[in-house]
Every structure is written in structure tokens, then in C-alpha cells.
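re: ur question from yesterday

yeah so i grabbed the chain u mentioned. its 169 aa long if i counted rite. heres the sequnce exactly as i have it in my notes:
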Amino acid sequence: MSTSLYDASVGPFRQILGATANVLEKGRTHCEASGIPLDDVVQMRLIDDMLPFQFQVVSSAHHSLGALKGVEAGVFTPPSPAGEDYAGLQDLITQALEGLDAFTPERVNGFEGKPLEFRLGKNAIPFQGEKFLLGFSLPNFLFHATTTYDMLRIKGTPLGKRDFLNLFQ
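ran it thru and got these C-alpha cells back, copy pasting raw so excuse formatting
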């Protein structure tokens, strides 16, 4: 059995974006029931020098659907700090999940060997499509999705590993 670039990227993106959508909804329900203002969650940080919850969610969408769009366009830039509220963050994850539908196996598998520049300010780092998706965006995606989960756990949201894995939904 061989695994394609599509299977190795879009599969995990779908699985964990779906989990993130569920985690966000459980977080909303918990916070509302517990009197925790959602605006406080959106702005919370694990530590002062780390970007807030809002950025973690935005980055999950950006390193999944945004990464595929970036490879296709040949350029990827980090996400900007966003101004979404909690509902806007939920919508962003839903839109990312829906946007993955446009990326067929043939389209994504065609990204192998495709040049891409990761632009950060005046710096440009060259990548090939598959190395960017699997070695850069997928790890970043998982980091930000995990951080989103962890931040909601800190607020007391009743979540477990099954929620993050999203295998049994």
C-alpha cells in the first residue's frame, strides 16, 4: 500500500480540523455554562510571550487550507494576528473544513516537487510542495490545534484524547 501526498496531508487536516470544530463547540458550551466570558478565552495566553488563543485557532486554519492554497500559489506567508471573536473562530474552522473539499487527490498529489517560497518579512525560504506540507505546515498545524485544545482544557472544558483524535465521532 502506498500513501499519497493527499492522504498524508488532507486526511490529517480533515481529522484534526473536525476535532477542533468539536473542541471549540464544547469550549463554548462549557464557558457559557460556567460564566467564563468567551472574549477572555479569545485573548488568553499560556504564557506572556506566546500568541493568544485567537492566533492558535487562526493558525490551525492557515496551516491546513491555507498551506494547500500556498503550495498551489507558490508562496506562503504566516497568518496575521486576527480580530475574530469566538464565533468568528468557529466559522473560520468550518470554512477551512469546507475549503478542503476543493482539493482533490489529483490536485494535491500534483504538488509533489512544486516550488514554494515561505516568506517571512524580507526573508524567503525555498521549499518543495510535499516537504512544505509534511515537514512544515502539518507539524505547525498540529501544534496550534493542540494548543487550542490545551487552552480550553485549562479553562475547565471537559475534553479528553478522544476529542482531539476525532476518530469515534
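noticed a couple things. Residues 5-34 form the longest helix (30 residues). also The mean pLDDT is 94.
anyway ttyl
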